[in-house]
Design brief:
The chain has about 180 residues and is of the alpha+beta class. It has four helices and six strands; from the N terminus they run H-H-H-E-E-E-E-E-E-H. It has a domain of about 110 residues. Helix 3 crosses helix 4. The termini are far apart.
């Protein structure tokens, strides 16, 4: 009875381990034979831990307030009410905004998707939408394909993000002295 129970527990543990996807076949040509290099790579990618780090707090967090491109995007879009601003999802969507007070039947929406946390030209995907309504309040929504406006918004965000990053580096340098 006890040996059957041990076999059942062992079988259950094996099932749990294999069902979690721990075993992943790899290509030997892509993996370094040097264990120190593999450990270093796994730690850089956040896939491992060191026993010496147990109990120590890590300070390598990327909060929205410390991400210069996120802060810059919010500052550039401060004129518009936000419908959705999700840092972990990497997206900012404004609510419908009117371009001027003369044409109250035209509205615009800006969507910014973050493709990278790095400050570079391909880090953002900016999409513009237009909503035109007639007098019966029937509206038509369409995407605006304007590279000029998208580039202008992107350029403003990237310039401001570069300034924020420069300020952050100066603060870090000052604090470390």
């Amino acid at each position: 009875m006890i040996s059957n129970l041990k076999k059942l527990i062992l079988l259950f543990c094996i099932f749990l381990i294999t069902s979690c996807g721990i075993y992943r076949p790899t290509d030997a040509r892509k993996v370094s034979p040097n264990p120190e290099e593999r450990v270093k790579k796994n730690l850089e990618e956040g896939r491992g831990f060191k026993l010496s780090n147990i109990g120590k707090r890590s300070t390598n967090f990327q909060f929205a307030s410390s991400n210069p491109i996120w802060r810059a995007s919010l500052d550039v879009l401060e004129f518009a009410p936000l419908l959705n601003a999700n840092y972990s999802g990497g997206i900012i969507i404004t609510d419908w905004i009117s371009s001027d007070n003369q044409n109250l039947n035209e509205f615009y929406k800006i969507t910014i998707k973050f493709l990278s946390n790095e400050i570079r030209s391909d880090a953002l995907k900016i999409t513009l939408h237009e909503k035109k309504c007639n007098t019966n309040n029937k509206c038509k929504i369409s995407e605006i394909k304007s590279k000029a406006v998208e580039n202008e918004i992107s350029k403003k965000i990237l310039k401001m993000a570069a300034l924020y990053e420069k300020e952050d580096l100066a603060k870090k340098k000052k604090n470390s002295e």
